[in-house]
Amino acid sequence: MHTENRLGEFLFARRGRIGPEEAGFPARTPGRRVPGLRREEVASLAGISVEYLTRLERGKDRSPSRQVLDTLAAALRLDSEGVRYLHSLVWPIGHTPDADEVAKPAPGLARALARFDNEIAYILGPYFEIVAHSRAAEAFLGEAAHGNQLEYVFLHPDAPRTYPNWDAVALEAVAAFRSMVKGREDDAVLHATLGRLSAGSNHFRSLWARHDVHGHSSGTKQIFNPQFGTMTVSWDAFMTAYPTGQTLVLYTAEPGTQSARILESVRQSLDSSTSGATR
């Protein structure tokens, strides 16, 4: 997964994702061999020469100006998070967390998590690993509440059962992970994580090669538990300024729905286990 031409790979992958008609060019014809935009089309949209774009894609020029990157971002129809990621490929902005620090939750986050013990909540580390979780998360998520979340999604045999809409979860997880690690592409822990995922999952490799990136802080997903059933949850990620790069993630259910009733059953199971332990 390691490469020195990250900018070129990103530009090439992203122009392959845009149909000519989306960018105002004639629709695909039978003789058109390129699945997305041609180099000359992207160059025209960005106001740069084809030769210069070729040098960027081939890694011959790795120091484009911010203005050039902004025009390329517009040509490639990147959203704000995509623009930030593109810039990070030229000017790394990430902080490599200290290994000892990320292995445990930041004290303030640990105190915050304790207030959500009856909710499905956890602290996510800078490599998508869960470093601490609530009792409700343990009860409902089970094995999915432990370890690296990308490795669970792509390498654990139960993941497609845990996530009924597994394809969407996998796609979103990879794009979120790429956003999370922007500017840290030379991080040894990151490379080890990518190596395990790539060796164990062809699907991960294909999704990582798409170069999708997003920084969503909320969304919805379905999660199945064999004891409680399938719950549709809304999730919110509360990012922090801690140098550990840790994030507090909270799952909630829409009041009055079957999912809310399932969540209440999870809470009641915690009460039952606590009262049983004190008898």
UniProtKB/TrEMBL annotation:
- Which Pfam families is this protein grouped with? HTH_31, MLTR_LBD
InterPro entries tied to this protein:
Cro/C1-type_HTH, Lambda_DNA-bd_dom_sf, MLTR_LBD
Please name the SUPFAM superfamilies in this protein's record: lambda repressor-like DNA-binding domains
Domain named HTH cro/C1-type is located at 36-83
Q: Which PROSITE patterns match?
A: HTH_CROC1
Cite the GO molecular-function annotations of the record: DNA binding
Q: Mind telling me what this protein is named? A: Transcriptional regulator with XRE-family HTH domain
Native species of this protein? Answer: Spelaeicoccus albus
